[in-house]
Design a protein that fits this description.
Blueprint: H1 22-45, H2 54-84, H3 90-102, H4 104-119, H5 121-130, H6 138-149, H7 154-166, H8 168-181, E1 183-187, E2 192-195, H9 196-201, H10 208-224, H11 226-246, H12 252-259, H13 264-276, H14 278-291, H15 318-332, H16 334-345, E3 349-350, E4 362-366, E5 371-375, H17 382-401, H18 413-416, H19 418-434, H20 437-472, H21 479-494, H22 507-510, H23 524-543, H24 547-557, H25 563-569, H26 577-602
The structure holds zinc ion.
C-alpha cells in the first residue's frame, strides 16, 4: 500500500450535517414528542381493551413503533459513528449519552405496548387472519406475544430489572473491569507491563518463544484473578438460571435458540454436523504442527502464521481493493458490483487508521437516510481487503431489506453474519483461484485458522457453557472446577489436535460472552452464520448466476420469519445435518489441499 494519506474517511453529512444542525435537533425533538404520544396512547388503551377495535389499535401501534424505531436507530448509529472516529471528542461522547437517555420514554412505551399485546392476544390473532394489511407482521407480532408469555408479572419484572443493576449486571461489570485492567510484567529489565489484551495479541507472532512467553504470562494473570472471576461467573449464571425458571423457560438453551429464531432440531443438526467434522479439524491441526516443524501444536500455536520464508503475500492499494471487490461482487451479481462501487466512490467507507479512531471494523445502517456506512482500518493486506468485503456484505444485506417496514428489518444473530460470510467467500475463492502455489498456502491456512475457531473453539465454548448451566443449578463452581470443565471441553473438541499439556484452562475468564446476563450461548449463532454463508456459496456454485436473485430475496426476508422458514423459502432444510455437512465440505477440500501444500511448498 502506498501511504495512508490516500485512504478515504467517511462522509456522514447526508445523514446529518452535524450535531448543531437543525436536522439533528429536529430528529431528537421528534423522538421526545412521539414517545410522549405513544406513552399516552398505550396507557389509555390499557383501559379501553373491550371497546377498541384491535386492528385499528394495532395499526396505530405499529405506526408509532415504525417511526420511533427509524428515528432512534438512526440517531444512535449516527452518534456512535461520530464517536468511533473521535473517541476523545467530548461532544460525540455527550451526544452518545444524550441519545441513550432520550430513548427511555420510548422504551417505557414499548413495555406498555407489549403488555397490551399480550392481554389482547386472541383479538390480535383474529385481526391477523382477517386484515390483510396486518398479515406481513404476523411473525413479528406472534413472536412479541410469545416472548411476553415468558415474562413474570409486571411487578416482578420491575423488581428483577432493579435488582439486576446491582446483581447480574454488576457481576458482568466486575468481569469487564478486572479483565481490562489485568496485566503482567513483560520486560523484567525495565518493568514494562503488558495488558492481557496485548499478551493475547502476541498469539499471532511469528516467533514461538514470544507466543509461549505471552501465553504463560497470560495464564499467570488469570490465575491471580480467578477468585473474583469465578464469583462473577457464578453470579451471572446463577441469576440467569433463577430468572429463566421463573419466566417459564426450560433452560437457557431454549431461550437462546428462540432468540436466534431457530428450532431445537436446527441446533441439533448444526451441532451434530460440527461434531462430525472434528476428525477433519484435528488433521488440519496436525498438518499445521508439521508446517511449523513441531511434534504437536500448543494452544499458543493456533494463530501462528504459516508461510514460506521470503514469499510475502501481495499487498493492495485502496484503488486495487476497490477494483478487486467490484469485479468479484459483479461476477456473482452485477447489481452487487454497482452497489460496491457506489460505496467506494461516495465515501461510505472510513478506511484511514488514525488517532482516536476505534480498532476493528463494522457496518452500520441509518434507516432514516436509507443508507449505510462502513468503518475499517485498512492496511493493504489481503485480510483487510476481506474485511472491507465482509462489511460491504452487511451493507448489501441492508440494501436488500430496505423496502420492508422497520419491524421486519430486524434479523437475528444467526442470519446477521450470513451476508458478510458470503461476500468474503466470493472474494477469497477468486483470490485463491488466481494465487500461485506459494501464495495459496498462507491464504488457505488463514481460512482454516478462522474456521477452526468458528467450528472447533465455538463447540468447546458450547460444551463448557452447557456444563456450567447444568452444574450451577445445584452448586457454586470454584475456579478449579471451571478450569476442569474448560479443559474437558477442549479435550472433547480439539482432541489429539493439540498437545494435552498445553491447552488453555482459563478461556472461561477470557471470553466476556459468558458474562452477559441477557444473552446466553452467545457463540453458536456465529457457527450458524459461517456455515450458512458457505452453504449458500456451495449452492451458488451448482446453480450458477440465477442464484443471485434467490440470494437477494432471501436477504430481504431475513426479518420477516424464523430462520427455518426464511431458509426453506430459498430451498434449504437447515433442520437436516446434510445441509451443514455440505457447507463443511468447503473446509474439507481446503484441509486436504493444505496437507499437500505443507509437503510441496514447505517440504515438510
Ligand atoms: Zn460481521
Amino acid at each position: 500500500m502506498t501511504g495512508s494519506e490516500k485512504l478515504p474517511t467517511r462522509n456522514l453529512a447526508p445523514i446529518f450535517p452535524g450535531f448543531d444542525s437543525d436536522e439533528y435537533k429536529a430528529a431528537k425533538a421528534k423522538v421526545s414528542s412521539l414517545a410522549a404520544q405513544a406513552l399516552e396512547c398505550f396507557e389509555a388503551s390499557m383501559f379501553a381493551i373491550e371497546s377498541e377495535d384491535t386492528a385499528t389499535w394495532l395499526k396505530q401501534a405499529l405506526a408509532f413503533n415504525e417511526e420511533l424505531g427509524i428515528l432512534i436507530e438512526t440517531l444512535s448509529a449516527y452518534t456512535y459513528a461520530r464517536f468511533s472516529t473521535a473517541t476523545r471528542d467530548p461532544a460525540a461522547m455527550a451526544e452518545l449519552n444524550s441519545v441513550e437517555e432520550l430513548q427511555l420514554p420510548a422504551k417505557k412505551a414499548d413495555i406498555l405496548f407489549k403488555n397490551a399485546l399480550a392481554i389482547r392476544k386472541d383479538a390480535v390473532e383474529a385481526a391477523l387472519v382477517s386484515d390483510s394489511a396486518l398479515a406481513p407482521f404476523a411473525f413479528h407480532l406472534r413472536e412479541e406475544i410469545f416472548f411476553q408469555s415468558r415474562q413474570m408479572s409486571p411487578e416482578l419484572e420491575d423488581l428483577a430489572e432493579d435488582l439486576g443493576r446491582s446483581g447480574a449486571d454488576a457481576w458482568s461489570r466486575l468481569q469487564e473491569s478486572v479483565s481490562s485492567n489485568a496485566s503482567a510484567v513483560w520486560d523484567e529489565a525495565t518493568g514494562a507491563r503488558k495488558t492481557v489484551i496485548e499478551l493475547r495479541n502476541l498469539a499471532f507472532d511469528q516467533d514461538r518463544s514470544v507466543r509461549e512467553k505471552a501465553f504463560n504470562l497470560e495464564l499467570s494473570v488469570w490465575k491471580s484473578v480467578e477468585i473474583p472471576m469465578a464469583a462473577a461467573l457464578n453470579g451471572v449464571k446463577g441469576s440467569t438460571n433463577a430468572l429463566n425458571s421463573r419466566r417459564g423457560w426450560k433452560d437457557a438453551l431454549e431461550k437462546s435458540t428462540t432468540q436466534a429464531r431457530i428450532s431445537a432440531a436446527t441446533l441439533d443438526a448444526l451441532i451434530s454436523a460440527m461434531e462430525s467434522s472434528l476428525p477433519m479439524w484435528r488433521r488440519y491441526l496436525k498438518a499445521k504442527a508439521r508446517a511449523l516443524s513441531l511434534p504437536a501444536l500448543a494452544f499458543y500455536d493456533l494463530f501462528a502464521p504459516v508461510e514460506k520464508q521470503g514469499q510475502p503475500l501481495p499487498t493492495f492499494s485502496w484503488e486495487d481493493a476497490r477494483g478487486f471487490i467490484r469485479d468479484k461482487f459483479s461476477s456473482f451479481d452485477p447489481a452487487m458490483g454497482v452497489f460496491a462501487l457506489k460505496a467506494f466512490d461516495s465515501n461510505w467507507i472510513d478506511a484511514q487508521p488514525r488517532e482516536g479512531k476505534v480498532g476493528g471494523a463494522y457496518c452500520t445502517d441509518f434507516p432514516m437516510a436509507k443508507t449505510a456506512r462502513v468503518l475499517c482500518n485498512f492496511d493493504g493486506s489481503f485480510s483487510s481487503v476481506s474485511t472491507v468485503a465482509h462489511e460491504l456484505g452487511h451493507a448489501w444485506h441492508h440494501e436488500c431489506i430496505l423496502g420492508q417496514p422497520y419491524a421486519l428489518t430486524q434479523y437475528p444473530m444467526t442470519l446477521a453474519e450470513t451476508a458478510s460470510i458470503f461476500a468474503v467467500t466470493i472474494v477469497s475463492e477468486s483470490a485463491l483461484a488466481q494465487a500461485s502455489q506459494a501464495e495459496r498456502l498462507p491464504l488457505i491456512e488463514m481460512h482454516l485458522q478462522d474456521g477452526c475457531q468458528v467450528i472447533v473453539d465455538i463447540l468447546s465454548r458450547f460444551y463448557f457453557e452447557k456444563a456450567v448451566f447444568g452444574e450451577r443449578l445445584s452448586n457454586e463452581l470454584g475456579p478449579d472446577k471451571l478450569s476442569a470443565l474448560m479443559l474437558d471441553a477442549q479435550t472433547r473438541t480439539y482432541g489429539d489436535g493439540l498437545d494435552p499439556e498445553k491447552r488453555h484452562p482459563y478461556m472461561w475468564a477470557v471470553k466476556g460472552h459468558y458474562y452477559i446476563p441477557s444473552l446466553s450461548y452467545y457463540n453458536f449463532p456465529y457457527a450458524f452464520g459461517q456455515l450458512f454463508g458457505l452453504g449458500l456459496y456451495e449452492r451458488y456454485k451448482s446453480e450458477g448466476p440465477g442464484f443471485a436473485l434467490t440470494y437477494r430475496q432471501l436477504l430481504g426476508q431475513t426479518g420477516s420469519a424464523s430462520a427455518v422458514e426464511v431458509t426453506r423459502g430459498a430451498g434449504f432444510d437447515i433442520e437436516k445435518p446434510e445441509f451443514w455437512l455440505s457447507a463443511l465440505s468447503v473446509f474439507e477440500r481446503q484441509m486436504m489441499e493444505f496437507e499437500n501444500l505443507v509437503t510441496e511448498v514447505l517440504g515438510r
